[in-house]
Amino acid sequence: MTAQQAPTRAQFDDVMVPNYNPANIVPVRGEGSHVWDQQGREFIDFAGGIAVNSLGHCHPALVRALTEQGNKLWHLSNVFTNEPALKLAQTLVDHTFAERVYFANSGAEANEAALKLVRRYALDHFGPDKDQILAFHQGFHGRTFFTVSVGGQPAYSEGFGPKPGAIDHLPFNDIQALEAAISDRTCAVMMEPMQGEGGIVPANPEFIQRVRELCDQHNALLIFDEVQTGAGRTGTLYAYEQFGVTPDVLTSAKGLGGGFPVAAMLTTAKIAASLKPGTHGSTYGGNPLACAVAQAVIDEIRKPEVLENVAARHQQFRDGLNAINDRYKVFSEVRGMGLLIGAALNEDYQGRARDFLVASADAGLMCLIAGANVVRFAPSLVITEAEVAEGLARFERAVAAVTAA
């Protein structure tokens, strides 16, 4: 390839490790909820980089924060702290249950830190026998070996040799199974308030309340993985606020940086004390560029009009998808919270979620799947009513194409 030639999708197969199978289109520019590819074709973005682009593409406040910080200070290492990291940590402490914050670069890293923390806390306070971690089938917590083992999808964790031990998986939303499994040996329960990769499945309020009660009863810590549900995605800063349950540890990433890699683990001062100097770390965690952008994200999504838009657009999505389903009879259920929505395929279309994704791209719409049977939508939190309407019209054309095939 010469300097004048643009990279192509075909080049991916020649130079990249084949663990991904990206679409044939190559996006080159984005603005708000619109994306353009190399050929100048326009798409409406209902995918949001998998719930990452919380304020759409190239939001002015984020561009400004990145540009200003880029002219000041890029990186220091954790030999020093820095002003953007301190400011962001203070903001997260001020607006959540947390008293202490640890920064990393991705959801997997935040979850890795959380899992190491709960094991270390149990060792410090109860001894080495309190090591069991309970998690849930179809849960997803990242791709490091520890997090993928705690995640409840064996296809992601098998084939890499012996897994970390003392990890047990239970059916999600099953109170009886939890009551039977938890004991004084349990050091932590890890869960998503709404499973994302597992199919956009919210926790039942009574289930999540019982999880909290049982953790307290057995001196186990409760970890909420809010990598996908956090940063305003469900209509509140974090989803736990809607359940009336406070975790001991919370992880946040994806939308926290609005597209810039950043993650945070939040917890209390007592629990945080178990990560003494030297017990864990991250070269880039707390990077000034990342923290400056994340601060701008939090400042924007905390505005009442942004969270009000999440609620309004949620209802618009539900109404629109149900109207499409009335005409084409493809979904068994439309579910989710805020702007993380899943359309579950009925028995006639089992295993065909990717067909709807491909047809959507052909119709000028970017969407997602959550497994083989759920079409997933995670657009910008500031997407407009008109953009949702146009995107749903394009999605209807995709549905029509799939059902006519």
Brief digest:
It is built from 14 helices and 17 strands. The chain has helices at about 10-15, 50, 60-70, 85-95, 105-125, 145-150, 155, 175-180, 205-215, 270, 290-300, 305-330, 355-360, 385-405, and strands at about 25-30, 35, 40-45, 100-105, 130-135, 165-170, 185-190, 195, 200, 220-225, 250, 265, 330-335, 340-345, 365, 370, 375.
Question: What's the count of strands?
Answer: 17
Number of helices: 14
Helix/strand structural class: alpha/beta
Lateral strand order in the biggest sheet: 4-12-11-10-7-5-6
N- and C-termini, Cα separation: 38 Å
CATH superfamily of the largest domain: Type I PLP-dependent aspartate aminotransferase-like (Major domain)
- Report Rg: 21 Å
Assembly type: single chain
The CATH architecture of the largest domain: 3-Layer(aba) Sandwich
Biggest sheet descriptor: 7 strands, mixed
Strand content: 15-25%
Indicate the low-confidence ranges by residue numbers: none
Q: Which CATH class of the largest domain?
A: Alpha Beta
Shape designation? globular
- Please name the CATH topology of the largest domain: Aspartate Aminotransferase, domain 2
Instruction: Please tell me the total number of domains.
Output: 2
Q: What is the average per-residue confidence, as pLDDT, rounded to a whole number?
A: 97
Helix content, binned percent: 25-40%
